[in-house]
Amino acid sequence: MSAVTAPIPAPARSIRNAEASIPMRTLVEVELRKMVDTRAGRWLLIGVGAITVLVLGVALITGDSGTRSFTNLLAVAQLPLAILLPVLGILAATSEWTQRTVLTTFSLVPTRSRVLTAKVAAALLISLGAIVFSLIVAAIGAIVAPIFGPADSDWGIGISTLGQDVVYQVFQMLLGVALGTLLLNSALAIVLNFVLPTIWSGLTGSITSLHDVQKWLDPGTTWMHLVDPDFTMAGQAWGQILTTALFWIALPLGLGLARVLRKEVD
Amino acid sequence: MIEISHLTKRFGDHVAVDDISFRCEPGTVTGFLGPNGAGKSTTMRALVGLTIPTSGKALVDGKPYRAMGNPGRRMGVLLDASAQHAGRTGRETLALSARMLGIPTSRVDELLERVQLAGAAEKKRVGDYSLGMRQRLGIAHALLGDPGILVLDEPANGLDPEGIRWMRGLLRDFADRGGIVLLSSHLLSEVEAVADQFVIVSHGRVQLSGTKQELLGGTSTIVRSIDPAGLEHALRQADLTFSAAHDEFTVSADPVDVGRAAAGAGVVLTELRAHGADLEQLFLDLTSDHKGDTAQHAQTRQEVAA
């Protein structure tokens, strides 16, 4: 610890330096970096990528010629990504509290809603990255498909299919972020992220009087339509998808935001 | 400038901070002293906007902390060295914040060098750091934005004696260049050598505050008599400020004035001696739990300091 030689700035300079707000772009970039600069984050990404490739591999080996088409492989790739990547979103929302780095984060950015906005934006960028990744691996899969057996050369995906994949990835991710923000506890949020929608689907599916609830508020039903190649989207389906999003994303995220804005940091 | 005025924070029934007021001016190091749980950390968190006060204000340069767009460039903060992501390397911890503050990574290298974490240590995960290393990383983090104010909560925790001496030099130098330093400690010895002024808190209240000169400069007299009641009366008559513990009186006056007052009343003394204030003893008196007469003692001292 050598003698201090660097000049301490005149107070006036540090006052001036502190005036300009940190741009939102910087906040998003930092939040994105936080998701992947820890060992847990890095391995999670690598794991999700590996599992997606594995699932595609299984589809190529065991499927028929229709399964081996680009269109179908793209749909297959969506599921592992949409199920596992939200864990990254959950951790982005919770780990600051479990690791207590909120102390630093909110010291540097005292307007907490800006941090939360940046986290949501970073999570959305991860989802878009997932779409790009799924396009690439599905394309590679379709190219090597003839090695595994007869394959349909079906490269046609409409903009609507792609759009639906994006919405699916984004909603699944936001569900994770919303639960994380509400619970602020990594383990609890991850478990509930997997268990809660399943229980919900089971309950609303098996109890006759709850069938309407399932139709409008069950992500396992309404959001699955987004990635079901055999399902033709209509106006009502979109309504059901959006009401589900309000219930599973907007509600917990709103409550979580209110909680984070008030919470004592220690 | 830091200005804490009538700050109060309640958690349910518990009053963590009770009407605390003090100021920190440029060029000074303020030692914020008190036992654990006295309200130091809560006060500092309120200053940074991490806790919302029940009443009162905590201002930086006359404004709330959150009014600053990029507060890390004005005020470097170390509230808890252990509050870092265990899975991140030391270098990445600093680099992330540097990106946030909008300062070049060269500053990260410079600071890692300065706190002796450059090289192998910067690539280790913070979870594998010793407390001393985390503390040094935290100090580097506080200095990152080239601030004019430093607010450090128990920065000496876990530092070895050499590290403590290094930190003192750094803080003294920082203040001498016109910076403002507020540092807390539950150990007086850690800050006594470097601080210009002291704010001593206990049970959420300021028990005593003032410059080193004010706190240590005043002379007092210890006096005992075979007739404590008579002595007390004599001291009152002479208009002297004093406190009493059993039959021992501590008077804020020179021995000659105390002796004259006793002689005038015809009180027989058994002891009369000058007593230079000892900050250590003062601190222990103020912060020890047997209150009662120490509370009165504190009040008297505060009058002296004022």
Biggest chain contact:
A-B, 47 and 61 residues
Quickly count the helices of chain A: 12
Question: What class do helices, strands and sheet pairing of chain B give?
Answer: alpha/beta
- The second-level CATH architecture of the largest domain in chain B is 3-Layer(aba) Sandwich
**Which outline of chain B best applies?**
elongated
The number of distinct helices of chain B, counting runs of at least 4 residues, comes to 12
Estimate the strand proportion of chain B: 25-35%
Work out the count of structural domains of chain A.
1
Q: State the helical fraction of chain A.
A: over 70%
CA(first)-CA(last) distance of chain A? 29 Å
Radius of gyration of chain A: 22 Å
Task: Calculate the mean pLDDT score of chain B and round it.
Answer: 89
Runs of chain A in which pLDDT lies below 50 for 5 or more consecutive residues are none
CATH superfamily (homologous) name of the largest domain in chain B:
P-loop containing nucleotide triphosphate hydrolases
Q: Tell me the number of structural domains of chain B.
A: 2
Largest sheet of chain A: none
